[in-house]
Write a structure and sequence with these properties.
single chain, about 325 residues, alpha+beta, 8-stranded mixed beta sheet, Jelly Rolls, globular, 4-stranded antiparallel beta sheet
């Protein structure tokens, strides 16, 4: 239910984070204001910036810096952690190996997932079975990324409590069997500068990542300062830029939250075009439901949308695998 928004709102979530585990948090004036802002942003754009999130700016920058250092390594070194089906679709992919709707994307990346042990989810979990494969260089890559993942998971859970309240349900509605044991995905992405395609034997394409929606509940985007490349499509089909704002994350909602809200909240199409001559790093953290969760529209959201159920249910892991198996060429 997006609108013709022209910009993406900025929300200070610190009042929510201060009260996130208070059973009476919804009665707090500061929390209520954050909840109202989340409701408006999720209804009108499906995207918003957050500040006051509590994750140290030094770590946010270090995550990007160490990603830059990795992508600067020789190709042969990066290939030591190459993504394939045998790695559970974890690891490195070269520019042009990620595909959106059949078109190669002009980015390279490392893909990471929450560990899936053998037999954990039966046949549903087999494609993503395994542990992440981290590069040995730069040093401390694994340590820094795992610290970052833990903090993003904690922050996302707290923001999702505010989003639950914004839909008129309990703050913990999205926990338990839905997302009490959340899956997560981390994509560490490098977008070559605009001149790259002219000097390399690569697909001639200026789109860093084609138009798509995200798969789960909530995404936290940590993007390089000084380069505007992320674009979000409004109702009229205009592409609205999401420029980096220092100290913030860009957040957006995914397909599973769209289903839960029965379409009240939209998983908005977005894309990346890096027209800058500079190499751009973006680290995207995806907070997801329980891997085997059956996601259905909430009754209260069906009531708010005229009593009509607009979406069939979906098993999150099945939805994720259907995307992953068509995302790569290697």
């Amino acid at each position: 239910m997006t609108t013709d928004f022209k910009s993406i709102p900025l929300i200070d979530v610190s009042p929510l984070l201060e009260k996130w585990d208070d059973l009476n948090m919804a009665q707090d004036e500061g929390v209520a204001d954050v909840v109202r802002q989340l409701a408006q942003a999720c209804r009108e754009a499906g995207f918003f910036y957050v500040k006051g999130h509590g994750i140290p700016d030094s770590l946010i920058k270090e995550v990007r810096n160490i990603a830059h250092r990795y992508f600067e390594l020789p190709y042969e070194e990066k290939l030591k952690i190459k993504l394939s089906a045998t790695t559970g679709y974890r690891g490195y992919q070269h520019v042009g190996e990620n595909i959106t709707k059949g078109v190669p994307d002009m980015h390279e990346a490392i893909d990471c997932y929450r560990e899936v042990e053998q037999g954990m989810y039966g046949a549903l979990g087999e494609p993503l079975q395994g542990s992440n494969i981290w590069p040995n260089h730069p040093p401390n890559f694994k340590k820094i990324m795992e610290e970052y993942i833990n903090l993003c998971t904690d922050l996302s859970r707290k923001i999702m409590r505010g989003i639950a309240l914004s839909l008129g349900v309990s703050a913990v509605e999205f926990e338990g069997t839905r997302a009490g044991d959340p899956f997560w995905v981390l994509r560490i992405i490098g977008y070559p500068g605009a001149s790259y395609a002219n000097c390399q034997d690569m697909p001639k394409n200026d789109v860093g990542c084609g138009a798509h929606t995200d798969y789960g509940l909530l995404t936290l985007v940590n993007q390089d300062d000084g380069i505007t490349a992320l674009q979000v499509r409004n109702l009229s089909g205009e592409w609205i830029s999401a420029p980096p704002i220092s100290g913030t994350f860009v957040c957006n909602i995914g397909d599973m939250l769209k289903i839960l809200s029965n379409g009240l909240y939209e998983s908005t199409l977005h894309r990346v075009i890096n027209n800058s001559p500079r190499y751009r790093v973006c680290v995207a953290y995806f907070y997801e439901p329980n891997y085997d969760a059956a996601i259905e529209p909430l009754d209260v959201c069906i009531q708010q949308t005229g009593g009509i159920r607009r979406f069939e249910g979906a098993v999150y892991g099945k939805h994720l695998i259907s995307k992953v198996l068509t995302n790569f060429t290697y």
